[in-house]
Write a structure and sequence with these properties.
CATH topology: Rossmann fold
Radius of gyration: 19 Å
Distance between the termini: 13 Å
Number of strands: 12
Number of domains: 1
Shape: globular
Number of helices: 14
Strand content: 15-25%
Length: 345
Amino acid sequence: MRFTRRTMLQLTAFSPALRPLLGQAPPLARSTVAVVQGNDRRKNIAAALEAIDDQIGPALRAKKYVVIKPNFVSTTNQLAATHANAIHGILDYLEPRFKGRVMVAEASAGDTMQAFEEFRYGQIASEHKPLKVDLVDLNREARYVTVPLIDYDLHAKPARLGARLMDPDAFVICAALLKTHNTVVATLSVKNMALGAPLHSAPGVTPAWNDKRVTHNGLRQTHYNIFLTAQAMKPFWGATVIDGYEGMEGNGPASGTPVASRVAIASRDYIAADRVGLEVMGINPKWLGYLNFCGDFGIGQYDLSKIDIRGAKLEAVRKKYRLHTDMERELEWMGPMEELPRVVG
């Protein structure tokens, strides 16, 4: 048997003990996803989490504190970033169910503190005093866990991920959005976590460094790095809620245009939530390599027929999102790699 680079990538994905007989992951149990549609972003978010409270509650009670991870791919464009009312909705759900510390923690590609100010996160803590809400810039906190990824040449490279997002004492809630993307077709829960977790140096620190660049380095490489990061982070994931009150179509994740989907999606299974999100956006699920890899290797349920929907019917909320103008190029990850000789030795 000759080993292509694709084969080597597949083999390196197995964990731990190379999976018995190098087979696929064992079949996953069914997953549950809540879908809520309404005319109030904050109420939609809270209602989506309440719809799966029977699944969240036991795990939440076992944790010491909560970490909410928003998406600040932009520190100035509200459409591209998690709205403060989405965070309010999460806290509305938590207040009667959790007494303790809550961190809203992000490692923005820009200055996280600027985003907190721009998007009015500073007002959140005063409205939810029983929860002791803190705003945390993971780049400034500079606590990290190192994971191995690959660079453009498929060489192993370390990436530093925010330690708060991989703390066994924390119940981690992803606060994602429905958005198209300029490299991996769409960005929802998994993409928010995997590409939001790598850190960069805080403002003024020299020499400057940026481990987000380790993840972003080519079509296939980016899909695979998101998968590797998700594999490392999955044991620490608590729940996800995707805010689709106003999604983004076209040239996402930062320069697209709004879509009034008016939905919220919640699940303890990040992969299942994203699979449902793609249905809401009318996107072919085969086009997202990183989510297919996650489904294939047991990180979550990607088979829609094995996902139980609570709430709105998908047919009632589905809208066809216009995709990025570079979609033809984005889908090249699915083709063969031909830049090296097929046979060596």
